[in-house]
Design a protein that fits this description.
The structure holds 2 protein chains of 2 kinds. By secondary structure, chain A is of the alpha/beta class. Chain A has 7 helices and 13 strands. The relative contact order of chain A is 0.16. The chains are: A alpha/beta, B alpha/beta.
Chain lengths: ~250, ~300
C-alpha cells in the first residue's frame, strides 16, 4: 500500500528517528521543531526539548513566527535564560542532540549562516550564529538539516559560523570541541560521517531519487558505500501527527 | 527612593558614545520607545550589545546612532533580516563584533560577577573567533587551565555603561519582574554600571514585598524607572501584548533601502514629539486594544 508524503515530512521523520527517549535536545525553529515534537509524541515521550532563550518543554497550540514568538513558549515547564539553557545545560555537556540548519555546509559538516556571496561579487551578511555555534561546539552530537542543492552542499564554504569536523580527521578534537555532526538530512538523502577522515558519506537516498541525481545536485562528491539503500518511508501515523497535530497550518513544513 | 522619571529624562542621562545593552530578542521586549527617543535626542556614537540582535538595535543603527555593535547574530524572525545592521556591516559603516548567543551571555555573566575573564568552549575553530582575534584582539585570549593544563579560549567581561531593559512590572525603586523567558536581561543588568527600566506597569512596593521571589531585577541596580505602556511596540511583551505584524512588515519594507528608511524615521520618530504621539500615529487605543494579550495564553 502506498500513500503520499512530502520530502519535508520525510526529513522531519528522519530527524525524529535520530532522537531517543530521555534525551535532551536543543532545537531551533522550523523542521527540527516538527522532528522533536514528533519524537515526543511517538517513541520518545520523556525527551526534553530546549529553546536557547530559556524555554524547556513547551506545548504550543499555535505555530509561531520564531523563537521570539510567545506562541512557541506556551505551557513550558521552565522559562529562564541563555545562561540557564546554553550554559548550565548545553555548555556543561548535558545536551545529547542539537539540531542545526544553515545556508551552506561542506563535506566536514561545517556550517555557514553568516556571509554569502551575491552574483555581483559582494558579500551579503545574514543571520549569523544565535545559539547555533554554541550547539555545534558543545552538544554531544548534532544533526544537520539542509535543502539538497548544489549551492548549499559545497566543497568549500565562505565562512564557518558553526564548526563541524573543521578540516577532517582529528582537527575538531584538537580544537577542543565536543561531539560533532553525526547526520546530514536533506530532502533527497541522508549522510553520515566517516569515523576516521570525518568526510560526509552517503547513507541512504529517499524513495523516488537516484544516486546519480543526488550526486549531481551536490557541490562535492561524498564517500559512497557499495550499496545505497532507500530511506525508510514515514508511517501513516507519523504523517498524520505532522499534518493534524504538530503543524496543521503548515507553517514549519511549507 | 522613587526613581520615577520621564523617558526624555532617562534618555538625556546617557552621554554620546556610551555603551548600552538592550533588552530585545528579535521581535520581543525590544526597547523601541527608548530607541525612538534616543534618535530624537540625537544620541550618537553608541556601542550597543545584546546576545541576539533585535529590532531595537536595528532601529538605532538605521538612524545612524551606533558606532559599534557587540552581538550574537540576529533577525526579525520570519519577518526578515536586521536590514540596517546587515547593511552597516556590508558597507563598513558599522563595526560589528560578532559572537554566538552564549558567548555574549558569558561576557555579561563575567561582568556581573566581577571576574577578570571567562573561559568558553564555543567559538573555537570558527571564523567568528578568527574575526574576533583579528579585529578585536583585546576581547579574546588563550589561557592555560591551571588545574588540567588544557588551553581555553577566554573572553573579556562586558560592563555596559547602561542597561536598558523593557519589563512588564516594576515598583518606583526599580524592583522588577520579567514575565516569560529572560534571555540575557538579568546578566545585562548586573554587569552594567546602572540600569534604565522601561516598564509597562508600576506596581507598589507592597506588591513586590508580597512576591519577593518574583523580583529578578533588584532596585539597587536601577537608576531610572520609566512607566510607558506599549513601550515595546511593534514588538511583543509577554502577557501584555502581541507583536504588531503589520507594523513590523512596514518596518521591514522601509528598511530595504537607506532612503525609504529615512522616510520611515521622519514619520514614526521625528514626526511625533513623544511616545504618546507615536501611539496615536499608529492607530491609538483601538489599534492597541487588538494587540492586548489573552491572559491565559500570554499573547
Amino acid at each position: 500500500m502506498t500513500f503520499d508524503y512530502t520530502p519535508s515530512e520525510l526529513m522531519a521523520v528522519a530527524g525524529a528517528r535520530e532522537l531517543q527517549d530521555r534525551q535532551v535536545v536543543a532545537v531551533g525553529l522550523g523542521l527540527p521543531v516538527v522532528a522533536s515534537f514528533l519524537a515526543k509524541l511517538t517513541h520518545a515521550p520523556n525527551m526534553t526539548v530546549l529553546f536557547e532563550l530559556g524555554v524547556i518543554n513547551p506545548q504550543p497550540i499555535h505555530t509561531g513566527v520564531g523563537l521570539a514568538d510567545p506562541r512557541v513558549w506556551y505551557q513550558a515547564e521552565v522559562l529562564s535564560s541563555f545562561v540557564d539553557i546554553l550554559g548550565s545545560i548545553l555548555h556543561a555537556g548535558r545536551v545529547d542532540v542539537g539540531f542545526l540548519g544553515g545556508l551552506e555546509t561542506d563535506k566536514y559538516g561545517n556550517l555557514n549562516t553568516t556571509l554569502v556571496g551575491d552574483p555581483r561579487g559582494k558579500f551579503r551578511h545574514m543571520v549569523g550564529s544565535g545559539g547555533a555555534n554554541d550547539i555545534a561546539s558543545c552538544a554531544q552530537r548534532t544533526v544537520i538539516i539542509i535543502r539538497h542543492e548544489a549551492h548549499k552542499l559545497q566543497e568549500a564554504i565562505g565562512f564557518i559560523t558553526s564548526p563541524g569536523y573543521l578540516t577532517g580527521s582529528n582537527s575538531r578534537q584538537e580544537a577542543g570541541l565536543r561531539g560533532g555532526p553525526s547526520r546530514v538530512i536533506t530532502n533527497k538523502a541522508i549522510f553520515k560521517f566517516d569515523d576516521k577522515s570525518r568526510e560526509m558519506e552517503l547513507q541512504s537516498i529517499h524513495p523516488g531519487n537516484t544516486v546519480e541525481d543526488v550526486l549531481q545536485t551536490m557541490g562535492f562528491t561524498p564517500k559512497l558505500p557499495k550499496d545505497v539503500p532507500f530511506t525508510d518511508p514515514p508511517s501513516h501515523e507519523q504523517v498524520r501527527l505532522i499534518r493534524e497535530v504538530i503543524d496543521p497550518e503548515r507553517i514549519y513544513m511549507g | 527612593m522613587s526613581k520615577l522619571a520621564t523617558l526624555s529624562e532617562a534618555v538625556s542621562s546617557i552621554p554620546a558614545g556610551a555603551h548600552i545593552s538592550l533588552s530585545g530578542f528579535a521581535i520581543t521586549r525590544c526597547a523601541m520607545a527608548f530607541a525612538r527617543e534616543a534618535i530624537r535626542q540625537g544620541l550618537k556614537g553608541l556601542t550597543l550589545s545584546q546576545c541576539v540582535g533585535a529590532m531595537d538595535a536595528d532601529l538605532l543603527v538605521g538612524a545612524g546612532c551606533v558606532k559599534r555593535l557587540i552581538y550574537g547574530g540576529g533577525s526579525l524572525d520570519r519577518f526578515g533580516r536586521l536590514a540596517n545592521v546587515n547593511r552597516g556591516i556590508e558597507d563598513g559603516t558599522l563595526k560589528a563584533d560578532e559572537y554566538s548567543s552564549l558567548s555574549v551571555a558569558f561576557r555579561y555573566l563575567a561582568g556581573s560577577l566581577g571576574l577578570p575573564f571567562i573561559p568558553i568552549r564555543s567559538l573555537r575553530g570558527s571564523d567568528l573567533m578568527k574575526n574576533l582575534e583579528e579585529k578585536s584582539p583585546g576581547d579574546v585570549a588563550d589561557v592555560d587551565d591551571p588545574f588540567s593544563g588544557k588551553t581555553w579560549k577566554v573572553l573579556r567581561p562586558l560592563n555596559p555603561d547602561v542597561a536598558v531593559v523593557q519589563v512588564q512590572s516594576a515598583d518606583e525603586e526599580g524592583n522588577a519582574w520579567i514575565m516569560g523567558p529572560r534571555w540575557d536581561n538579568v546578566e545585562q543588568v548586573k554587569s552594567a554600571k546602572r540600569t534604565v527600566l522601561i516598564t509597562e506597569n508600576i506596581i507598589s512596593n507592597k506588591t513586590i514585598r508580597q512576591n519577593p521571589e518574583r523580583t529578578v531585577i533588584p532596585g539597587l541596580f536601577v537608576s531610572h524607572v520609566v512607566e510607558l505602556p506599549f513601550g515595546a511596540h511593534p514588538t511583543s511583551v509577554y502577557r501584555e501584548y502581541d507583536y504588531d505584524s503589520s507594523a513590523i512588515e512596514t518596518y521591514v519594507e522601509a528598511s530595504k533601502t537607506p532612503d525609504s528608511f529615512k522616510a520611515y524615521l521622519e514619520q514614526t520618530v521625528f514626526g511625533v514629539k513623544d511616545h504618546a504621539a507615536y501611539l496615536e500615529l499608529i492607530g491609538g487605543k483601538s489599534r492597541l486594544r487588538k494587540l492586548k494579550a489573552d491572559p491565559d495564553l500570554g499573547y
